[in-house]
């Protein structure tokens, strides 16, 4: 932001007479107008930052959903439930991008449904920026995650895919349009014709999110029927306990500020304690699942009125929510309704109570404060060391980790980052003189090459030298802007750098989602079964690839990036198998291979306007080959790949080889077979036997369960048990 000087010395030459006094007044007014414009830009930037940060927090709830689901199901279904939770984000990301946001907030629209901005066409607009899309997407996939819990442990994968896409692309967006769009027929944000002269106040989603997910889960579980063994022959309830109740308390929660944070905290705390003591009176024992679900029930109930009620009312809300949850659980048992996570009772029942609660306890002053006027929408360097660690996992001595990590982060990586991210070095795109590499410099915005390739290649050499085992990504990309309150002096942007930050978050999401789905289906075609590891690694591969060009490509190009990244990952994994190269986390293939593709992708798809936005100071820079920008940027990107590969190879390969020759790299065969948790770290992460435990016995080994090479056509998959 340029400094504004307006001192007596500046004004003195203009104050000689009446005429000059008028000129001086005009001068001062112009200066104040400049200040006002800067404040407007700063205000918009701060609001977008807040919205992006909130979106990241809401998205972090997916981690909580995954942990809660994994802990609440039996150990034999952990992989399945983790797969479906990742699928909610991936499939939901694409369906909400293509259809959901347009149905929810596309303007102009009618009271029932939106019908503009499909695929974020013409984004950003005067009403919405990319950050707003990301925030709404995070809420959409939260609704899908709720439903996943209701139908856990017995649902086919294809069904998950269909319902998740349909829920996030159509069902949820319609409901959110009704209540959160300024055009929705029941929205409290309308300026006229409010429903009952009030509109529905559902500030953070008791109805829109929790009820939608809970009711969808209710019908899924009811139609599908209970799990085998959930009720005995006489119809009595049989508890099918999850394998790790301790995962439940780490469930995420909505972000809130001020009074809203207080009411949310009080409602959740009250509900947790009430459920804990209430169930203690009814069944005679204390249960961590009860307190966790009570906490969630309180959150589900208060989200509707959290911004418009007093703290004391939030306590009432949480107290009643606990008994609503207990009551619905009793009713579910009588109906022989089986919901492993109590999702329908918790989100549907407590969410419904929360909607009613708001109608009973909303304060007039708070309602006016929150819902006044017409609003456009709702109110509201060390990384690469970890990459290498994955490549050499399960067989490396601790001293070797310490040496390579220090060397990589203290010497190898800093040299590469200096080459491409320093403002004055030979390949940097940030230089302002006429000595840019190929008149472009290398564009690696957030590190496909600098971070992912460095870590991946280092890991490759470590794993290759060490040999195989004995058989027995959101603050990262948008945060790379470093600052947000910065205007753009171009005619084809709505605002400034804050808009580009939102766009960067969207491209990151789309690339990751596309890569996750493509890897999942691609590996299904190749090996014949669905695998959560494939989906997770595909997601990471998409993130690794898009980090180079995330700020300078269109959202549709990010989908291409993710699609190709998935096949790059699959191809490198096939190649690794042929080489007998063993990387437990596929880290070198994922970060090295997909990172290299991301560097090339930027040279092909970088958009001229975005390159000029992000890399200011030299207009007319070369851009992507496929975008009409010629070959120069692509050539610079290829140079980056070559020098990174050469530098990391020349430094890390000798280091790993030296450790290998000194016998400091690999653990003994005995330690590797027994597992380092036991031999190095003092015990296993999981206790598998509570009674007559023999997990510490030398002969103790867990069984592996592997899918058959030829999957069956019926629902009962054949399992091979290998000791």
UniProtKB/TrEMBL annotation:
Keywords: Ammonia transport, Membrane, Transmembrane, Transmembrane helix, Transport. GO terms for molecular function: ammonium channel activity. GO terms for biological process: ammonium homeostasis. The keyword Oxidoreductase does not apply. One of its GO terms (cellular component) is plasma membrane. Belongs to the ammonia transporter channel (TC 1.A.11.2) family. The chain crosses the membrane at residues 50-73, 94-113, 133-151, 158-180, 200-223, 286-305, 311-328, 398-421, 441-464, 556-576, 634-659. This is Ammonium transporter. It comes from Fraxinus pennsylvanica. It is a multi-pass membrane protein. It is found in: Cell membrane; Membrane. Signal peptide: none annotated. Its main location: membrane. Residues 50-246, 259-369, 385-470, 474-686 form the Ammonium transporter AmtB-like domain.
């Amino acid at each position: 932001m340029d400094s504004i000087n307006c001192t007596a010395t500046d004004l003195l030459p203009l104050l000689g007479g009446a005429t000059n006094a008028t000129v001086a007044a005009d001068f001062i007014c112009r200066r104040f107008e400049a200040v006002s414009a800067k404040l407007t830009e700063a205000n918009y930037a701060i609001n977008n930052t807040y919205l992006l940060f909130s979106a990241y927090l809401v998205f972090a709830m997916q981690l909580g959903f995954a942990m809660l689901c994994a802990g609440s199901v039996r150990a034999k279904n952990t992989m399945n439930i983790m797969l479906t939770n990742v699928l909610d984000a991936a499939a939901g990301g694409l369906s909400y991008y293509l259809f959901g946001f347009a149905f929810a907030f596309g303007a102009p629209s009618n009271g029932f449904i939106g019908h503009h901005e499909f695929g974020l066409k013409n984004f950003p607009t005067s009403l919405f920026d990319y950050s707003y899309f990301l925030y709404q997407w995070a809420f959409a996939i939260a609704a899908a995650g709720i439903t996943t819990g209701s139908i856990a442990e017995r649902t086919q994968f294809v069904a998950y895919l269909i319902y998740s896409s349909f829920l996030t692309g159509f069902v949820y967006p319609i409901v959110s349009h009704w209540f959160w769009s300024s055009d929705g027929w029941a929205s409290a944000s309308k300026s006229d014709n409010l429903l009952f002269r009030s509109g529905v106040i559902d500030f953070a989603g008791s109805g829109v999110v929790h009820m939608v997910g809970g009711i969808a889960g209710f019908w899924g579980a009811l139609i599908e029927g209970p799990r085998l063994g959930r009720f005995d022959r006489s119809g009595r309830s049989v508890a099918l306990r999850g394998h790790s109740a301790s995962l439940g308390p780490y469930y995420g929660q909505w972000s809130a500020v001020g009074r809203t944070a207080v009411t949310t905290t009080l409602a959740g705390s009250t509900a947790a304690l009430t459920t804990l003591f209430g169930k203690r009176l009814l069944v005679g024992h204390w249960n961590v699942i009860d307190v966790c679900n009570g906490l969630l029930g309180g959150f589900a109930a208060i989200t509707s009125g959290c911004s418009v009620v007093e703290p004391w009312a939030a306590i009432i809300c949480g107290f009643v929510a606990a008994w609503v949850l207990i009551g619905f659980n009793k009713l579910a048992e009588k109906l022989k309704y089986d919901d492993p996570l109590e999702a329908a009772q918790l989100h549907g029942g407590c969410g419904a109570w929360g909607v009613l609660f708001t109608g009973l306890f909303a304060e007039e002053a708070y309602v006016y404060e929150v819902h006044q006027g017409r609003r456009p929408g709702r109110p509201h360097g060390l990384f690469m060391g970890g990459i290498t660690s994955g490549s050499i996992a399960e067989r490396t001595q601790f001293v070797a980790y310490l040496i390579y990590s220090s060397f990589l982060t203290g010497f190898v990586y800093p040299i590469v980052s200096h080459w491409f991210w320093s403002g004055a070095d030979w390949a940097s795109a940030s230089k302002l003189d006429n000595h840019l590499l190929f008149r472009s410099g290398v564009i690696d915005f957030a590190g496909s090459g600098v971070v992912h390739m460095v870590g991946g290649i280092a890991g490759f050499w470590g794993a290759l030298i060490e040999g195989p085992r004995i058989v027995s990504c959101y603050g990262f990309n948008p945060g790379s802007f470093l600052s947000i309150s910065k205007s753009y002096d171009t005619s084809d942007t709505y605002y400034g750098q804050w808009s580009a930050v939102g766009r960067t978050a969207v491209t990151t999401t789309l690339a990751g989602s596309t890569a996750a789905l493509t890897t999942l289906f691609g590996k299904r075609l190749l090996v014949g079964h669905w695998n959560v590891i494939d989906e997770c690694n595909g997601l990471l591969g998409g993130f690794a690839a898009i980090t180079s060009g995330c700020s300078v490509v269109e959202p549709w190009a990010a989908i291409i990036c993710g699609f190709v990244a998935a096949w790059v990952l699959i191809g490198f994994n096939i190649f690794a198998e042929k080489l007998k190269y063993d990387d437990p986390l596929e880290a070198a293939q994922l970060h090295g291979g997909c990172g290299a593709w991301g560097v090339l992708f930027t040279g092909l798809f970088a958009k001229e306007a975005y390159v000029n936005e992000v890399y200011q100071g030299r207009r007319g820079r070369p851009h992507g080959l496929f975008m009409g920008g010629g070959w120069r940027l692509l050539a610079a990107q290829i140079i980056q790949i070559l020098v990174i590969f050469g530098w990391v190879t020349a430094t890390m390969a000798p280091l790993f080889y030296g450790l290998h020759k000194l016998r400091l790299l690999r653990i003994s065969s005995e330690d590797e077979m027994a597992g380092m948790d036991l031999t190095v770290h003092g015990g296993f992460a999981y206790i598998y036997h509570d009674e007559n435990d023999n997990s510490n016995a030398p002969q103790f080994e867990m069984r592996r369960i592997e899918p058959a090479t030829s999957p069956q056509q019926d629902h009962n998959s054949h399992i091979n048990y290998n000791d």
